[in-house]
Design goal:
Elements: E1 3-5, E2 15-21, E3 24-30, H1 37-47, E4 54-55, H2 63-66, H3 88-92, E5 104-106, E6 117-121, E7 142-152, H4 155-160, E8 174-182, E9 191-192, H5 202-213, H6 230-246, E10 253-258, H7 261-273, E11 279-284, H8 287-296, E12 301-307, E13 328-332, E14 334-335, E15 340-341, E16 351-355, E17 370-376, E18 387-392, H9 409-412, H10 424-439, H11 442-462, E19 467-469, E20 480-485, H12 492-508, E21 511-512, E22 523-526, H13 533-551
Parallel strand pairs: 9-21, 11-12, 11-13, 13-16, 16-17
Antiparallel strand pairs: 1-7, 2-3, 2-8, 3-7, 4-8, 5-6, 6-7, 10-18, 14-15, 17-18, 19-20, 20-22
This protein binds pyridoxal-5'-phosphate.
Length: 552
């Protein structure tokens, strides 16, 4: 039998009946506003299993449309094809004795069964009649309470299987069971393009949700459990080793999970590494890079070796001179606001220090080039509240400075990030995210997926007459993609209201947080690791639709 499927799917919260037969399944939505005695009765009987193993040969073709007197052996009236309808209702319903043809189909107008209404038919003594079907007919004696939306065959083919007292069924359809359920209230699909905090893998948040009430089968929630328990210590140690594995972190490096976000690292890095009379080289590729160098200036000498500030940080400067004897070279690997990314890291005279907040774990990196890597978690790793620091331990202890205990990396290393109470929950979510990433094939697999997503969006921008990307092509980030309206497509005085329009409709379509950073305006789609490709597809489709609507 051919399967059919109606596009008019039941909505979340609606009651559905799944009718399993020997030929396949049929699904019926019960009209919520019409669910009354008849449907309740049906539901009740279904729950009692009273429809199990019932031949469908009592299904009456064109039941409604044929009309006619529903005269059966009991002599009670109704509207149905004459001669049909044994009194199966009697069998099933001890209360409503005069139900006639408890399960019947009516084909309203469709040539096949799609959209057919499903009736419960009452005889004249039926307890209650609720309504009439939406095809305009009004008949006493039945209650429309549902609509077929998925099933097998066509009504005709099902009807062929009918029999009455004269014919044998050609193809007997037997109802095996009827299952009633309420569709869960599905949440609208929302794609969160926020730059951070940002989208997390659903699996990780679900696991975190469960751990809130019971962590590691302890019966204690992750928010409540002591960080000194073996469970938490084990979880933190596992998070560390997962990160080591995923980023191929070589021997000689330590991993720390610290509070204070990436911004605290702007000062912890120079406090720990930069002597008061030493020089550190900083690349100025964006707002966060400039914040990092501003902090460093408080603790040593800073040489800003390059800057793209004059062109609103729309590219990565490629050639610059490093200061001879500089302690380190600082780079912001991905510039979240401007959507530029170091595709190849510069070769540092000594070692690189990198803020990888917005692209860590998005691509493989050669950690051995770096003395220190830091990243706030709230983009690719987990929720806000924890920053990860990966540090080569031999670069520590070289500055002569009395470092406050909490700001000294050497405090945290022997304590395994447990010198004080760590952000346990944030680390736990990170743990789940790392598991998710590992299961997906790790960072190399993620890099491929990220390239696919980013290329899809960049291709759409490059082929658009309405939108354009703002970052230099060779430096385009795979994580954050800022875009604006083309000046030749939208007049300056129309731009603001059209932007508002775009963002408003986007939200209606479940595309959230697309507004560009306040310093650059326009739009920005952050498509971190956890953004599914469907999110990018939906965005690209919406952009095309908006373009058509705007430009015609
Ligand atoms: C590249 C980069 N560095 C640093 C930060 C600041 O991070 P935090 O808020 O954790 O201090 C951000 C935040 O968006 C960022 O994108």
């Amino acid at each position: 039998m051919t399967n059919f499927h109606q596009t008019d799917e039941p909505q979340s919260g609606e009651t559905i009946a799944i009718i399993s037969t020997n030929k396949g399944q049929m699904k019926l939505r019960l009209f919520p506003e019409l669910v009354g005695v008849a449907a309740e009765n049906f539901i009740e009987l279904a729950k009692q299993g009273k429809y199990n193993n019932v031949p469908f040969h009592r299904v009456i073709k064109d039941f409604m449309i044929q009309g006619g007197d529903f005269t059966n052996k009991n002599g009670t009236g109704g509207h149905a094809a004459a001669g049909e309808g044994e009194n199966i209702g009697d069998v099933y319903d001890p209360r409503l004795k005069h139900i006639r043809g408890a399960l019947s189909w009516a084909k309203t107008s469709a040539p096949n069964s799609i959209g057919s209404q499903f009736f419960i038919v009452h005889g004249e003594n039926g307890a209650h009649f609720l309504d009439h079907p939406p095809n305009g007919h009004s008949h006493e004696g039945y209650t429309v309470f549902g609509q077929l939306y998925e099933g097998f065959g066509t009504l005709d083919s099902i009807a062929e299987s009918k029999t009455d007292k004269r014919d044998k069924p050609k193809e007997e359809v037997i109802i095996e069971s009827v299952e009633i359920s309420i569709l869960p209230t599905a949440m609208k699909t929302v794609y969160n393009f926020s730059a951070g905090p940002s989208i997390l893998p659903k699996q990780a948040t679900e696991e975190a949700k469960a751990a809130i009430t019971d962590f590691a089968n302890t019966g204690i929630g992750i928010l409540e459990i002591s960080h000194r328990t073996k469970h938490v210590e084990g979880m933190v140690a596992e998070t560390e080793s997962l990160l080591k594995e995923l980023l191929s972190i070589p021997e000689g490096y330590e991993i720390l999970f610290l509070g204070g976000g990436a911004s605290l690292q702007f000062c912890m890095v120079p406090i720990n590494l930069l002597g008061a009379n030493s020089v550190a080289d900083y690349t100025d590729t964006g707002l966060w890079a400039s914040k990092a160098l501003k902090e460093a200036k408080k603790f040593g000498k800073v040489n800003v070796v390059c800057s793209s500030k004059d062109s609103t940080y729309n590219h990565i400067p490629k050639t610059f001179e490093q200061t001879p004897g500089a302690t380190y070279l600082h780079v912001t690997s991905n510039n979240t606001i401007y959507g530029t990314q170091w595709k190849e890291f510069p070769k540092a005279n000594t070692y690189l220090v990198s803020d990888m907040s917005s692209d860590i774990l998005s691509r493989p990196i050669d950690v051995s080039k770096f003395g220190l890597i830091y990243a706030g978690a709230q983009k690719n790793m987990g929720p806000a509240g924890v920053a990860t620091v990966i540090i080569r331990s031999d670069i520590l202890g070289k500055v002569e400075r009395d470092i406050p205990t909490m700001l000294d990396y050497r405090t945290h290393i022997p304590e395994k990030s447990m010198f004080n109470t760590p952000p346990v929950f944030s680390i736990y979510v990170m743990n789940r995210v790392l598991h998710w990433l590992k299961n997906l094939g790790g960072v190399a697999a993620m890099e491929k997926l990220n390239a696919k997503k980013a290329n899809m969006l960049y291709d759409a921008l490059d082929n658009s007459k309405l939108f354009k990307g703002t970052a230099a092509k060779e430096d385009r980030s795979t994580m954050n993609i800022p875009f604006v309206f083309r000046e030749d497509a939208v007049a300056a005085d129309k731009k603001e209201s059209l932007e508002k329009d775009f963002l408003k409709i986007a939200v209606e379509k479940g595309l959230e947080q697309l507004k560009g950073h306040r310093s650059v305006g326009g739009f920005r789609a952050s498509i971190y690791n956890a953004m599914p490709i469907e999110g990018v597809e939906t965005l690209v489709a919406f952009m095309a639709e908006f373009e058509k609507k705007t430009l015609g």
